[in-house]
Amino acid sequence: MKLCVVGSGYVGLVTAACMAEVGHHVVGIDINANKVDMLNDGGIPIYEPGLDKLVLKNREQGRLFFTTDYSVCADADAVFIAVGTPPDEDGSADLQYVIAAATTAAKHMPDGCLVVVKSTVPVGTTDAVAEEVNQVMQGRGVSALVAFNPEFLREGNAVGDFLKPDRIIVGVEDVASEKKLKRMYAAFNRNRDRMIMMDRRSAELTKYAANCMLATRISFMNDLSRLCDVVDGDIESIRRGIGADERIGSHFLYAGIGYGGSCFPKDVQALLATGEKYGVDLPVVSAAWQANKIQRQWFIARLLNVVKAKDVKQVAVWGLAFKPGTDDMREAPSIDVIDALLDAGVKVTACDPAAAEEAKHIWGNQITYQDSPEATCKDADILVVLTEWLMFREPDWASIADLMHGTDIFDARNLYVQEELAQHGLNCIAVGRGKSCL
Ligand SMILES: NC(=O)c1ccc[n+]([C@@H]2O[C@H](COP(=O)([O-])OP(=O)(O)OC[C@H]3O[C@@H](n4cnc5c(N)ncnc54)[C@H](O)[C@@H]3O)[C@@H](O)[C@H]2O)c1
Predict the structure, then answer these.
(1) Angle in degrees, CA 163, 169, 174, rounded to 5
(2) Which of 144, 152, 219, 231 is 20 to 30 A distant from 188 in Cα terms?
């Protein structure tokens, strides 16, 4: 099939490359001409494992191409909309990019073309897109089908998630859209039927429900972690204990510094805004959001207490990306932590294997960047570990202790064994590991 994918960001680029990989002819459209040039020249604007090879291979085999020109939609079987839906000032999703992308494509789309909204959008948006698109097409005496097909890929594992999805959620209002989507996804659906068909509104809510459920689990564990510190419990033991219960399961039970990234904070706020719009209280979702803010502030307050008490001059930070496997720094905990340290007049040296370039857009040369975790620690009074990249998992604590000026290690991801660090004279302040962490 001939597909156009509007938006060549984390979702759009992965969608375009994976759809080409299974044999479709795909054109990626983006308004950012630099991005398009880079992609056509064999480069890749984001860090996502395996994506560069997939893009290059499909470019070379002639199934994938990038442009800023929407007229390529003229012979498309389907047009995916995968542009951003960032939070507006009141937390609701800003839909201007989705509407602009869909209505611009509509100027060129042929009769019967299927618009597939992939961006995460509030309930009712796909209906509004259908109306706007068909209004634009009406002038040419043609019309389009419109479906919603949320994306569940995880940054850092996006190619694998797209090629082997747990489920493909499809929100449709007509049989023709359903048939087209089944054909488009046939290659992903061979050994078992992964497609779950529903109406468009339920599909829109399913995406928010998934992210808000996961955010709620994290917030619940974070609440308990703060209690653990005071009553001398261990959140890691509790995690293992409840995760073994099949009804609960072991995923998304890690206490830490509060969720970040481009999806959870944005989607939790957007669902709350939807509740407000329709006059429906969502106390659980609201608590998940409040708890996240409390956890982040609580971690930073503990850090600043030590900074003040010990007259700290220099802090090393391991990890800038909001999670391992990505260069994405949207809503990354590192932003709040480093801003607080800079405000306190502390010198910051940071290390991240993928996100340092992104970080330079935020802090420029206000902080120092190092490639090696060890070099980052030289003369540091405190080490703060914010992202659980593999390279930070098994440090040589003896040489870290030698290099550092101070002895405090703030472990925001509960990666380390406190007793092991203590053998090197280091004091590990983790999350929810008991009174020693207070
Ligand atoms: N990033 C994720 O992990 C993830 C996962 C699932 C769903 N989503 C959702 O997918 C959507 C896209 O997210 P993302 O992270 O890929 O965003 P992104 O910011 O990485 O990419 C968006 C791209 O769209 C382009 N764009 C904006 N307006 C355009 C227009 N009118 N025409 C053409 N291109 C345009 C931008 O230049 C940019 O390249 C969001 O709604 C997000 O919530 C994201």
Answers:
(1) 125
(2) 144
401-415 confidence digits (pLDDT tens): 999 999 999 999 999
User: Do the beta carbons of residue 50 and residue 160 sit within 8 Å?
Assistant: yes
CA distances from 421 to 93, 139, 425, 434 (A): 44, 70, 7, 16
Among 18, 30, 51, residue to substitute to test ligand 1 (most atoms within 8 Å of Cβ): 30
Give me the residues paired with residue 28 across strands: 5, 66
Q: Which atom of ligand 1 is nearest to the CA of 8?
A: 39
For 264-333, the DSSP string reads HHHHHHHHHHHHHHTT---HHHHHHHHHHHHHHHHHHHHHHHHHHHTT--EEEEE--SSSTT----TT-H
**CA of 121, closest atom in ligand 1:** 41
434: pLDDT confidence band, cut at 50, 70 and 90?
confident
Of 263, 351, 428, 437, which one is the catalytic site residue? Answer: 263
Q: Once rounded to an integer, what is the mean pLDDT over residues 2-26?
A: 98
Rounded-to-integer distance, Cα 150 and Cα 160, Å: 16
* Cβ(358) – ligand 1 distance below 6 Å: no
CB count in 10 Å sphere of residue 54 = 22
Q: What is the DSSP letter of 191?
A: S
- Domains of the chain: residue spans and CATH: 2-198 (3.40.50.720), 229-437 (3.40.50.720)
pLDDT at 435 over 90: no
